[in-house]
Design brief:
Layout: H1 7-10, H2 13-17, E1 22-25, E2 37-39, E3 44-47, H3 49-68, E4 73-76, H4 83-92, E5 97-98, H5 110-128, H6 137-154, E6 166-169, H7 176-184, E7 189-193, E8 204-207, H8 213-228, H9 236-243
Parallel strand pairs: 4-5, 4-6, 6-7, 7-8
Antiparallel strand pairs: 1-3, 2-3
Length: 244
């Protein structure tokens, strides 16, 4: 793949330097993560970086195939280490995101969430058009509060008008509600799984530390760099028209 000419391809030292191998406490280890654990002798489990590398590359290939077909990837990262970098990655790729909190029902009750998004768009358009002038100061302050709250909860979803083609999860542990909803709705799950979570819920699990800013940033930056250069395939009918 053209996008793998970076530190990830050259050696595993880059992954180790950023702490991808530092798993959770041994006492908190999930039994289904055993195939991804290199060492279980210390207080903290050590992740097999060979498998981290292999799985990250497979995950990127899958995500690239989604983007190539003009698909939608919802980026989720509510953990402290993931918020900012998850949001930036999604924005750079023009994809939806959730970084504050996962509202229950985003997937399992999408019509209700869609109505809340439409409501947010409506009151924001009213404000932009100067229509707030017809309200009292008290009413305007209440509308401003609603906009602020809805923006915080739904701001990254304003352009999501259907269930996504895949969901990226920056932490299987912190974002487990999102993972469970995705599984229920058969949305492919891709993302970071530390040794304290269940990798079998993921279609493309990436074994790595999910509580380290350096580790999460390294992985998401790699994903962003890989996807940002992916060209969207032209529809077959458009190609035929060009040939004529």
């Amino acid at each position: 793949m053209e996008t793998k000419d970076n530190a990830l391809k050259s050696d595993l030292e880059s992954l180790a330097l950023r702490g991808l191998h530092l798993g959770a406490l041994r006492s908190h280890g999930h039994p289904k993560m055993k195939p991804y654990v290199w060492s279980n002798k210390n207080v903290f489990q050590i992740i097999d970086l060979e498998k981290s590398k292999e799985n990250l590359e497979r995950a990127v290939d899958f995500l690239a195939s989604i983007k190539k077909k003009s698909g939608v990837i919802l980026f989720v990262g509510t953990g402290f280490a993931a918020k900012d970098v998850t949001k930036k990655t999604a924005e750079d790729l023009n994809m939806p995101y959730v970084t504050e909190r996962w509202l229950g029902g985003i997937f399992t009750n999408f019509p209700t969430i869609s109505r809340r998004i439409d409501y947010l768009k409506n009151i924001e358009s009213q404000k932009a058009a100067g229509e707030f002038a017809k309200y009292t100061k008290y009413e305007v302050s209440k509308l401003e509060e609603k906009i602020k709250k809805l923006r915080k909860d739904l701001g990254g979803l304003v352009n999501l008008n259907r269930l996504p083609d895949a969901i990226w999860v920056s932490s299987a542990h912190y974002d487990k509600i999102a993972v469970n909803e995705a599984v229920k709705k058969n949305v492919p799950v891709v993302g970071i799984v530390n040794t304290n979570a269940d990798p079998t819920l993921f279609n493309y699990p990436i074994p790595a530390a999910d509580n380290s800013l350096n580790a999460v940033s390294f992985i998401l930056n790699f994903v962003r760099d890989a996807l940002i250069g992916v060209k969207i395939s032209e529809p077959a009918e458009v190609k035929e028209e060009i040939k004529k």
